[in-house]
Amino acid sequence: xxxxxxxxxxxxxxxxxxxxxxxxxxxxxxxxxxxxxxxxxxxxxxxxxxxxxxxxxxxxxxxxxxxxxxxxxxxxxxxxxxxxxxxxxxxxxxxxxxxxxxxxxxxxxxxxxxxxxxxxxxxxxxxxxxxxxxxxxxxxxxxxxxxxxxxxxxxxxxxxxxxxxxxxxxxxxxxxxxxxxxxxxxxxxxxxxxxxxxxxxxxxxxxxxxxxxxxxxxxxxxxxxxxxxxxxxxxxxxxxxxxxxxxxxxxxxxxxxxxxxxxxxxxxxxxxxxxxxxxxxxxxxxxxxxxxxxxxxxxxxxxxxxxxxxxxxxxxxxxxxxxxxxxxxxxxxxxxxxxxxxxxxxxxxxxxxxxxxxxxxxxxxxxxxxxxxxxxxxxxxxxxxxxxxxxxxxxxxxxxxxxxxxxxxxxxxxxxxxxxxxxxxxxxxxxxxxxxxxxxxxxxxxxxxxxxxxxxxxxxxxxxxxxxxxxxxxxxxxxxxxxxxxxxxxxxxxxxx
Length: 497
What we know:
The protein has 497 residues and is an alpha/beta fold.
């Protein structure tokens, strides 16, 4: 909270009220209190009374009046920031600026783009220029082509000048679309609940002429050129060390993000979709699918179950629903649905998560869709690391997923921040979350924005959730006085778009 200098009370209580007609007539305690409030403010008088009479507490009306006064000062004291901020998770960086009058938190991510080719042609042979094993595999495949076909194939892994500007615009728009305006923030303090923030994420990346990165850029963006649909071994964010920036431990402007040009579109290896084969025309699952069923049950196990170290309560996962699209004529499809649900529940998936759609017609492949099933945009996921968030995908043994995640149900790097932001927490689980395998931004993903607005405003009561209407406890005092800011549209904390 922004605090002004303490103001001393008058040395005597024998003050004269300008509204009192008889100066010789003693004032009541109440009238003296009112006069002191006029002279030094509600907050100072309330503090004095609490020190003199420690067992007394201010009335709700006094608390309300003090809050109105302080909110007015807070609003007039802005804007807060801009400040380059590295979250306490120790990686990433962004700029945060809060406009108290417009109730807007602007989160800005700046980067300098280093456009790199993934391969080149030397003496008629393709040669890899990145250390990615999948690029090496593509080089091997190209070198098996006829000589006159290789140049065109290699060209798909090389930038041309006409591609750069449209690509940077696509990069910016994809991240902004995924991350902006998903949830609102508010101050969780009595009579301050109407102070809110709409979150606006702005991304600005530029190819600099004289350098790869300007001094105030939060990252160097290494963009390897690849053919459409190519999936490399990495996107990554390297946080560097504490150089530059003014956030936690510095380093807000010392990051490197590495992606492929194809990473601004949905992945072609979408892990939220899978299929299980039935025997031709039969209700029985094909024996060849047994291993796949085992893998899917491990991959999509619920994250719920990890216990909080402080209170022992289970930390809820997302428990994304799993839709089963079952083919076949009605009677056959019903039997197949029964079999596939039994196979998955016997392997540990909760029956409540499984829903079936009877597709009809011919075919023997049951399609599984987890959550919304939309393929992840890797660039948007990596932007989450720049916002200070860790991975959320599960890497349980046998689930077929590698990387820097953890076992389902264990706490992620931003779990504690999520709880301090008023969210239940964050655990590892393969689902449609942006920091897992999809693009859905959920409340825990704004936890580092909450941390940043706490710091730049010095109000350490910000939480995820919509602001609430605040009214005077006194019917004689109309609501909506100074500092009672109009709340943005209600949000129950569940919307994601």
